[in-house]
Specification:
The protein is an alpha+beta fold. It is 37% helix and 20% strand. It has one domain: Mago nashi protein (2-Layer Sandwich). A hairpin with a 2-residue loop joins strand 3 and strand 4.
Length: 210
């Protein structure tokens, strides 16, 4: 009778687990998870946005949305609607300032590709994910009827991972807005790099559906 290879395979599996630093799944424990506060390595390594119920106000109907709120400054927002960007800067206690900038089909395609693919990977983390300082970034993508809107958020991402990449893309569009729509080719170049990085990352780390 041949000896089983199972013990060897188990040892290999354990070695790989230890080498990668991966943790085994455990049921949720609120007291244990509260220890993992904002600013820990655990938070900085989050590679997904968090699902959000944030309501975007003003700007009308949009296909893509982005809004950022800051601890010590007023929020700003832009949204993509058909063939143009609506750029809204919202000073504290003042009416929003709005500008409309035409954009090309390729810019719209790149933004939609990044937004939809990153938003579809959203997941609730197990630990607290915001704090008194920093910035909150909200995203949405309209992919069908009103019930098919994807919405997610992230608080002050810093690690070189998809949440940081989509925030960088959103801020590049905000800069494009503030400069009156100049430099669209440079914007497309940055977005194309981000799209490629998102695809490469989630091909390895993304959710796989049966």
């Amino acid at each position: 009778m041949k000896s089983s290879n199972l013990p060897t395979l188990v040892l290999i599996g354990v070695a790989v687990l230890l080498a990668t630093g991966a943790d085994a799944w455990t049921p949720f424990d609120r007291d244990a998870e509260m220890i993992r506060q904002v600013g820990t390595e655990a938070y900085r390594h989050l590679d997904r946005l968090t699902p959000s119920a944030h309501e975007f106000k003003g700007g009308g109907s949009c296909d893509l949305d982005y809004e950022a709120t800051f601890s010590f400054a007023g929020p700003h927002r832009w949204c993509l609607s058909e063939d143009h960007l609506k750029c809204l800067r919202i000073p504290r206690e003042q009416a929003p300032v709005e500008g409309v900038i035409p954009v090309s089909a390729e810019t719209r395609r790149l933004l939609a590709s990044i937004w939809v693919n990153v938003l579809l990977e959203s997941r609730y983390p197990r630990f607290q994910r915001s704090g008194p300082d920093g910035s909150l970034h909200y995203f949405s993508a309209h992919i069908g009827t009103a019930d098919d809107d994807l919405r997610a958020q992230v608080w002050s991402p810093s690690k070189d991972l998809p949440p940081r990449w989509i925030v960088d893309s959103a801020e590049a569009v905000e800069k494009f807005c503030s400069e009156g729509g100049s430099g669209e080719h440079d914007l497309q170049h940055k977005l194309a790099i981000t799209e490629r990085r998102v695809f490469q990352y989630y091909r390895t780390h993304g959710q796989v559906y049966p």
